[in-house]
């Protein structure tokens, strides 16, 4: 591996942050990069990325499991994607406000890949795609309420930016949480269209669909909970969700912004074998370029076909996004792609668990494929409240700092994930496990 400082010097990052904070609120352009999201005393400023490695402006090089919070499934600067985008820009342009043949090529690939998707529309971000999915569900069913789960994140639009990480017990009883706005500025009253539930509890969901089903347009869920660390669905839970929504005449929306094109070419729905009505994709789809998609059953998408539900946008399906997604999907569709990605990811997950076990640390490494997080607890974590009650955030912070100091980068938040890319090698994982052994020894002292 490259230079791995024991104590990274980050003075240039610090100076850049001070300068940025004068003109950019909080010094950063997304909450997840802010000091209050864990990047203390300041976030690292990036010089460049290459494959599985990221270099900061002070010249420290890290093995990168942050991976842009998910889009870099092929690692940084994947040559085929870069070339496709550059070719498109140089020979054809960027934005036309008219369709290109490439868009239908991309739609064909998505429809072929994802079990539930018969038709698909592009947009730019996961936030937009979720907004459209919920609008479409309301239009299709003629109902107004959306069920969403405490601890999940579905983007920052007013309609769903509730109960992401509320404080407990102020958020109400475990089985019937009340909606809590994710900060001021959300219009009061919007929450009357939401029902907040604990995840991984089929009985609570069934009961709500039974009593309030006539008002519920959709159940919106990540198929794997990725915004409160990594929490897997318990066996039968997604199936119960599918059955109960169908009985109630409500739609099932999978937010596959993180899981899509990551757990399999057909996303979590292929890997876990549960078929939603509508699905939302983003991060993995574009190989690092901003593109998202909403797809689903033809009869629901028909509302978009005839313009009853509008999906618009100056930049939707722009040339850069479409070229990047077409090139990315061609790579993801190669026969050994997911087998190889899983193998290297499993090496990390099992390796980390073995390191913690050997050090007698109370830690569980939970994940599926190239997606994982470490919970510092001996309790099983089934939902957000378990995480709040049982996970040791202080220990996570020490773990994060120890790993960063040894050249291993991931998000400082225990509720984020470690991502693995196809650029990560067995040698990368071995070096990461060496670092983890060192840190675990320190933590168990
Ligand atoms: N849905 C999920 C599950 C996400 O994790 C995110 C972002 O992290 C979003 C939606 C929002 O996507 P975007 O940041 O592209 O707006």
From TrEMBL:
What metabolic or biological pathway is this protein involved in? Porphyrin-containing compound metabolism; protoporphyrin-IX biosynthesis; 5-aminolevulinate from L-glutamyl-tRNA(Glu): step 2/2
EC id: 5.4.3.8
Entry annotated with the keyword Flavoprotein: no
Which major enzyme category is it?
A: isomerase
Q: Tell whether Transferase is among the UniProt keywords.
A: yes
Which portions of this protein are annotated as coiled-coil regions? none
Q: Which SUPFAM superfamilies match?
A: PLP-dependent transferases
Which co-factor is required? pyridoxal 5'-phosphate
MF terms in GO: glutamate-1-semialdehyde 2,1-aminomutase activity; pyridoxal phosphate binding; transaminase activity
Give the protein family. Answer: Belongs to the class-III pyridoxal-phosphate-dependent aminotransferase family. HemL subfamily.
Name of the protein in question:
Glutamate-1-semialdehyde 2,1-aminomutase
Query: Which organism is this entry from?
Result: Alsobacter metallidurans
Specify the taxonomic lineage: Bacteria, Pseudomonadati, Pseudomonadota, Alphaproteobacteria, Hyphomicrobiales
């Amino acid at each position: 591996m490259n230079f791995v400082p024991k104590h990274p010097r980050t003075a240039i990052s610090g100076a850049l942050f001070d300068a940025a904070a004068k003109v950019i609120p909080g010094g950063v352009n997304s909450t997840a990069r802010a000091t209050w999201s864990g990047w203390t005393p300041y976030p690292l400023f990036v010089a460049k990325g290459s494959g599985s490695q990221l270099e900061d402006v002070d010249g420290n090089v890290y093995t990168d499991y942050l991976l842009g919070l998910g889009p870099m499934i092929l690692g940084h600067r994947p040559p085929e994607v870069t070339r496709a985008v550059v070719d498109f820009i140089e020979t054809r342009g960027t934005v036309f406000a008219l369709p290109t043949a490439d868009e239908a090529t991309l739609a064909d690939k998505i429809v072929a890949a994802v079990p539930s998707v018969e038709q698909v529309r592009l947009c730019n971000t996961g936030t937009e795609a979720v907004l459209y999915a919920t609008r479409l569900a309301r239009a299709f069913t003629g109902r107004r309420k959306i069920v969403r789960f405490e601890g999940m994140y579905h983007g920052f639009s007013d309609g769903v930016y509730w109960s992401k990480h509320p404080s407990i017990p102020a958020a109400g009883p475990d089985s019937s949480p009340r909606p809590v706005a994710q900060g001021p500025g959300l219009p009061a009253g919007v929450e009357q269209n939401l029902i907040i539930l604990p995840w991984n509890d089929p009985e609570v969901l069934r009961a709500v669909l039974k009593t309030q089903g006539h008002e519920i347009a959709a159940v919106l869920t990540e198929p794997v909970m990725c915004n409160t660390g990594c929490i897997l669905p318990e066996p039968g839970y997604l199936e119960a969700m599918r059955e109960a929504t169908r009985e109630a005449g409500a739609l099932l929306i999978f937010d596959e912004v993180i899981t899509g094109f990551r757990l399999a070419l057909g996303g979590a729905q292929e890997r876990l074998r549960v078929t939603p009505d509508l699905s939302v994709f983003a991060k993995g789809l574009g190989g690092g370029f901003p593109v998202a998609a909403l797809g689903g059953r033809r009869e629901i998408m028909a509302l978009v076909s005839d313009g009853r539900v509008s999906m618009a946008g100056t930049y939707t399906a722009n040339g850069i996004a479409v070229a990047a997604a077409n090139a990315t999907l061609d790579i993801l569709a190669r026969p050994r792609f997911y087998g190889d990605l899983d193998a290297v990811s499993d090496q990390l997950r099992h390796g980390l668990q073995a390191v913690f076990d050997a050090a007698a640390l109370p830690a569980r490494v939970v994940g599926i494929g190239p997606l994982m997080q470490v919970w510092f607890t001996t309790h099983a974590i089934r939902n957000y409240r378990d995480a709040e009650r049982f996970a040791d955030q202080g220990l996570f912070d020490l773990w994060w700092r120890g790993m960063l100091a040894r050249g291993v980068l991931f998000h400082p938040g225990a509720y984020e994930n470690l991502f693995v890319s196809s650029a990560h090698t067995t040698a990368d994982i071995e070096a990461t496990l060496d670092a983890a052994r060192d840190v675990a020894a320190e933590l168990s002292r």
